[in-house]
Amino acid sequence: MAMVQGRFVDTFKGVIPDDQLAAFVDKAVAAAAGSGAGVPGASPGASLGVERAGSDGPETTAAPVQDPVVLVAGAFAALDGGLPSAKEDAARAFSHVLAAGTAAGPATRARAYAGVARCALLASPPDLEGAREMVMMARKIVDNNFTEPEEIGAAAARTELMASAIEAGVLSFASDASGEKNDADGFETEIEALRAEVVAAAAVSDKDAADDARHKLTLRLVFAGDASGAIKVALEMVSKGSRERGRKLCVQIFDALGANDPLTVAGRRRLSNAWFI
After folding, report:
1. Residue 47 DSSP label
2. What superkingdom does the record give (predicted)?
3. Which of 167, 201, 222 is the last residue of a domain?
4. Which of 209, 210, 228, 240 is most buried when burial is the number of CB atoms within 10 A of its CB?
């Protein structure tokens, strides 16, 4: 697998020798450079300590890759920071780690595959199947040999949350004539409309319709960047609607955020309280 502007440009199945993987990654890096991906005038990955040959002078030898553990941590930090160049920078960093083969260590390589899954979800439209494939590759490396890094579960949860949001119609990736995504347009209006659906369904004691609206509202809030609000609505489903459906939705959000996120810690406590009331 390799990515350019968040899309997979090639794929491989199973385990391939390290030298072939390195060549595969080099091909992807060259494609990314040729596509103009990243910040204009910047070297994609430079902020993460990954260099490439200069385009204005003689070809130079790439600088040695940093400690793979540090590189992967930096790539995840870049993704979480949400900078415009994060997707390409992080994808390049994860690819360099994977190209290092077994030298990177199994846990670090597994985390890198999870990182590439995260990058796939930032494509437009998201590459859900590619993300699932990368999660599967990460879990093949773990294979009960060591504790699964939480980034893998987070990538899996984010993938399925996004798939659910697309299926439910609360996320779309249509473009207008100018080629700009219009998915985010008017999301506040959409959220208010979904809140109204919940209230209307609850008023006539239609629990299934209320839960359907809560589910959609939760997903819309997640992808509007309001994880706290999403957890609140999912917990409302636990207390007022389908307990199990609400619990599963809460757990997906907690997994996507990560076990140590303050919202997860507080949310799990609130879920436990709501479950036993």
Report:
1. G
2. Eukaryota
3. 167
4. 210
